[in-house]
Input
Amino acid sequence: MSVEAMENIDVDELSRLADEKKYRQLKNLLLEMNSVDIAAFIEDLDSERTVVVFRMLPKDLAAEVFAELSSEKDMHIINSITDRELSDIMEDLYVDDAVDMLEELPAIVVRRVLKNTKTDTRKLINQFLNYPENSAGSIMTAEYIGLKESMTVEESFAYIRKHGIDSETIYTCYVTDAERRLNGVVTVKDLLMNPYETTVSEIMDTHVLKVTTTQDQEEVVDMMSRYDLLSLPVVDSENRLVGIVTVDDAMEVMEEEATEDFEKMAAMLPSEKPYLKTSVLQLAKNRIPWLLILMLSSTISGAILVYYENAFAALPLLVSFVPMLMDTGGNCGGQSSTTIIRGMAVGDIEPSDILQVVWKEIRVGIVAGAVLAIVNFVRLMIQYPGNTMICVTVVISIFITVIVAKTIGCTLPIGAKVLRLDPAIMASPMITTIVDAVSLMVYFGMASRLLELAA
Amino acid sequence: MSVEAMENIDVDELSRLADEKKYRQLKNLLLEMNSVDIAAFIEDLDSERTVVVFRMLPKDLAAEVFAELSSEKDMHIINSITDRELSDIMEDLYVDDAVDMLEELPAIVVRRVLKNTKTDTRKLINQFLNYPENSAGSIMTAEYIGLKESMTVEESFAYIRKHGIDSETIYTCYVTDAERRLNGVVTVKDLLMNPYETTVSEIMDTHVLKVTTTQDQEEVVDMMSRYDLLSLPVVDSENRLVGIVTVDDAMEVMEEEATEDFEKMAAMLPSEKPYLKTSVLQLAKNRIPWLLILMLSSTISGAILVYYENAFAALPLLVSFVPMLMDTGGNCGGQSSTTIIRGMAVGDIEPSDILQVVWKEIRVGIVAGAVLAIVNFVRLMIQYPGNTMICVTVVISIFITVIVAKTIGCTLPIGAKVLRLDPAIMASPMITTIVDAVSLMVYFGMASRLLELAA
Output
């Protein structure tokens, strides 16, 4: 990605200038770039040059770049600059970026940072640090434009001109009363489309979409994406405006939540950091719990096989179809559960749709099961001519397994949701383990009956 | 979702008013609501009331609601209104919404719609319909604010006031020359922060981030999320501005792309429509191809079992550990492949990181394999006391299987990417099938050696 994104920027040229200590030329080039690309460039510098290059940046830009850097780089910079420089950066950082950074740093560094932060900002940061993880409060920012009902359009513009530079977004302004209660919302578009003497109260929209600090970040994102919002106000329990969530943070949360679902659905605990920065032990720690649970659960399938020991002792060929049955069952169940879990995550499917979903999956199972059974029958009749009854056993087992797998695969995630568990745990790995046991019972039950084998 | 989102709106009250034909009261309530909620309400009305309620809406709002409705409802409304009404809606729809709708409608309806669309708009729609699916061109809109370099801030505001009402976003304005070539970008924030007499050329940013019409929509989203953009300009091959992509559409694409990855990674072809609106046959068609491929591939594992027939004929207990081995291998491989596929999708991992990734996965495999082996050893020694060599065989097989599964699971998705295939096909189902065969070979190879059984 970085290659495409930085297509207009010659990273080699920048590195060369840094190597040759042509700092003035380097600075001129950097000033032409945006903070994201500068941060990407600094990220690859060695520790000494990191600080040299960072110090070249003007105050405002430095804070922006600082917010984009990894916590490792941030810590290195903090440890290398003076208290005064640190204090300047902290005043220019948006509160949400400051909080994100502090959550990653060791306590001793946090203490020095907070010591060099002005009292008001420090209070705000401490308040933000206390919101529960993944809540609206934890992703909001405090820098918004607040207007009063009595202001005119002209006064509003004057206010925006004065305070806009410190706000994350100026395009949606929030109207509050003397107690900071949120009464309305007005966009810069509304302001622009109305005469200067109009008052805010005349043009503001009083039907404000909002969330409370403790609501889950997923609800915030759903709401912003559903109503195409650029920002969403966050209020406390008494409807006082405490912050806003901007659309760029919402997009980040959306990506994080999808990643989390991918991880959970592959039987892993969600990880906090990007893969390459996560330690081997942490990765192992995230993966082992479910592996253990699923490994121990699959002994049930083993027990079923032991129970039918005589069947395959008499007819060893039977065993050779076990992997095909188990894999097909697992894949069918995985398809259904993935479809339903994702459908619920994006709001297409509600638990109340359960009957419709099950009926649909059963019919899909009948169609898919029939096709797989026919293809398999043809193959088996060619591969094992004369063993018609074995073929029939395998084919009927496949057909039933597909239908059962689809039914289990769609029922369990909805059941989890109803029980207020995370549906994502009922994804492919768990479904596979359950379906394995069922498909083996169907198969050997069928074999005992059709082939007249003693169980 | 709809319940939370519509918390301030009494749907029952609306339905009651519609039932009792109290249309004036209903209209007053509707006018207080936003287009998303009105569309959600209309979606649940029967066909007769749909048209009655839709006709209540003022022209502008009608077009907005129309853009939010499902294609079924749109078609019903189109078939029930006059040519004149249709023409009005088409003029008020944004081009991207019109195109999205037309792509879903049957040809005969499309013809009537285009017949009632003004020539300019029709040309634009036809042009947009021709961009390749999933390209930047297919998700962009034509309604943006275009300024000239020579304009002053004051003239710019006058222009925005006049044309802003028809633009999807006014907050980022694009500066073009006489040939419509894109030369710069200026935000309303920039305009507000500068004196009225400043010219656009003085404050515009000439480092414009942009995409071409044929670039993939995923690149568009990556770029917007990386640089926190509210809109991104789309140019043709000669750098002429043809449209913009807005952040709300980018969020939608992000959600769609994640859903597509979930589907592919569960061995399904991506589906076009929400689950509940997809037919049983279509669902079966999306699911059967991979099921067939994987079913036939898993006969390889079956063949391996047949090859070791004598081993488990002599020692039937051996078979009972097959499900555990296969499931554990599949789960381990699935964890790794999911992590790597998602990591590549969000840009955390590049194919050039392959050595680092493989080395990390091997180490994770050693840790996870050791833990699973130890737990299993303890369990087996309790469950089957005296069968020490069988336990050792199972435990060593588990350990090796975990490491091999992790290695295969991380290598194949990267390999697919290098070969310009979609890494998502190398997800859990495919990996499981491959790892199954490997784990059975390890297990029975080990058993033949350690237990001195004839293969």
